[in-house]
Specification:
By secondary structure, the chain is of the alpha+beta class. It contains twelve helices and 19 strands. Strands 1, 2, 8, 9, 10, 11, 17 and 18 form an eight-stranded mixed sheet that branches. An eight-stranded mixed sheet has the order 6-5-13-14-15-12-16-19. Strands 3-7-4 form a three-stranded antiparallel sheet. Strand 10 and strand 11 form a beta hairpin. Helix 1 runs parallel beside helix 6, helix 1 runs parallel beside helix 9 and helix 9 runs antiparallel to helix 10. The model has no long low-confidence stretch (mean pLDDT 97). The structure holds flavin-adenine dinucleotide and P-hydroxybenzoic acid (PHB). The site of flavin-adenine dinucleotide has 35 residues, from helix 1 and helix 9. The site of P-hydroxybenzoic acid has 9 residues, from loops.
């Protein structure tokens, strides 16, 4: 017989979206259970994003999970852009009064898993959700597997925080969804290594051999990316080959400071823009990568997952505190406004920095755009505003 358990909000996925939502709801006395397909070790070992907007850091503080963030997060007040033999800095702080925080998604995930478990929260690892049912009617159910048995989680609402390949979006009939997608013919090859970063801040590089990015996780751990073909494989790359190619693309001042070392991790990320509309269906709500992904150039994916959760948590809290349903009704359209704002920026920034074949016309346009961006106050401000993160809309 199928075992059924019950909670108020059933959450699929223990990525940043699911964990943050669960903890914010817990603080208002709302009960959740998270179902996660992978093991805790797997979730805590994944290397993903590295740049937090201030709004994301603010939400972490609101959730009370900020001790390590405040101690170890690196505040960056600008980035450098290298192109056409030049390197120019854009000062976020001067343009917007704000900066960003470099803090690994891996660390954020570890902090939240620990905080959920310390608070007695329930995360079922190795419990893949198979389908969401009856989300249009009174009592939605998540069908899932645990220890080889099929079980059910019955709840008031379901939050699909299960990423791009999850089942929440798959459970919605295709004809009720509108999908928007842009796939790029290239990918990023990333390396993580325990070597000091080449620069105090991030460097984004437009080079004739392709894009490169110098990022970091700490003063002793670096994260570097180079543009590669969409069908490239990690097996094709030795550490030496990676460092040689990176050296070719970096400006000479950075090459001088580059310290190389053995990989801790190497992975390939395809570049894609994708949005599924709407983000809610009756009592099923999508948040984060389950509803949208964007090329990582603008460092927006994790931050959008956090802003979705900001809107969804407020809507659920208003429902349980005051029986209000208007915020739940408006969740999709409100979240999507910010999603499209971030997609716009991420696609523009991707177009500015990557090599698209050998089209000299496009390359000349990129150089003109970069020259304008790094010399005009107005263009610098527009860039900085988007990079540090557009404000959350009032939602009350
Ligand atoms: P995920 O992190 O994908 O979490 C979804 C969870 O659901 C996973 O744990 C998965 O195992 C689980 N799951 C899936 N299916 C099921 C199922 N059927 N049942 C149960 N559980 C399931 N974003 C930024 O903001 N800044 C950056 O600097 C940045 N850099 C990036 C660099 C790279 C190389 C990559 C790949 C991404 C980057 N991103 C960045 C994007 C960011 O990592 C994602 O947007 C973010 O992880 C989204 O969080 P999420 O919780 O929505 O989804
Ligand atoms: C990262 O550190 O992983 C990172 C930083 C900035 C980006 C993308 C990824 O734009």
């Amino acid at each position: 017989m199928t075992k059924t358990i019950r909670t108020q909000v059933g959450i699929i996925g223990s990525g940043p979206a699911g964990l943050l939502l669960s903890h914010l709801l817990h603080q208002q006395g709302i009960e959740t259970i998270i179902l996660e397909r992978q093991s805790r070790e797997h979730v805590e070992g994944r290397i993903r994003a590295g740049v937090l907007e201030q709004g994301t850091a603010w939400l972490m503080r609101e959730a009370g999970v900020n001790e390590r963030l405040d101690r170890e997060g690196l505040v960056h007040d600008g980035v450098s852009l290298a192109f056409g033999g030049r390197m120019e800095r854009i000062d976020f702080k001067a343009h917007t009064g704000k900066g960003v925080i470099v803090y690994g998604q891996t660390e954020m995930t570890r902090d939240f898993i620990q905080a959920r478990l310390d608070a007695g929260g329930s995360i079922e690892f190795e419990a893949p959700a198979l389908a969401v049912e009856d989300y249009r009617t009174g009592s939605p159910r998540i069908v899932y597997q645990k220890n080889g048995e099929t079980q059910e989680l019955s709840c008031d609402f379901v939050a699909g925080c299960d990423g791009f390949h999850g089942v929440a979006r798959e459970s919605i009939p295709a004809e009720q969804l509108t999908l928007y997608e842009k796939v790029y013919p290239f990918a990023w090859l990333g390396i993580l290594a325990d070597v000091p970063p080449v620069n105090d801040e991030l460097i984004y590089v437009n080079h004739e051999r392709g894009f490169a990015l110098c990022s970091m996780r700490s003063h002793t751990r670096s994260r570097y990316y180079i543009q590669c073909s969409f069908d490239d494989k990690v097996e094709n790359w030795s550490d030496d080959a990676f460092w040689d190619e990176l050296r070719c693309r970096l400006p000479p001042s950075a090459v001088e400071k580059l310290v190389t070392g053995q990989r801790l991790e190497m992975s390939i990320t395809p570049l894609r823009g994708f949005v599924a509309e709407p983000m809610s269906f009756g009592k099923l709500f999508l948040a984060g990568d389950a509803a949208h992904i964007m090329p990582p150039t603008g460092a927006k994916g994790l931050n959008l997952a956090a802003s979705d959760v900001f809107y969804l948590s407020r809507a659920l809290i208003a429902y349980y505190a005051e029986k209000r349903t208007d915020l739940l009704d408006r969740y999709s359209e409100t979240a999507l406004r910010r999603v499209w704002g971030s997609i716009r920026f991420s696609l523009w920034y991707t177009g500015l920095l990557h090599k698209f074949g050998d089209d000299p016309f496009n390359h000349r346009l990129q150089m003109a755009d970069l020259a304008y961006l790094t010399s005009s106050e107005a263009a610098g401000t527009a860039f900085a505003e988007n990079y540090v993160g557009l404000p959350f809309e009032k939602f009350e």
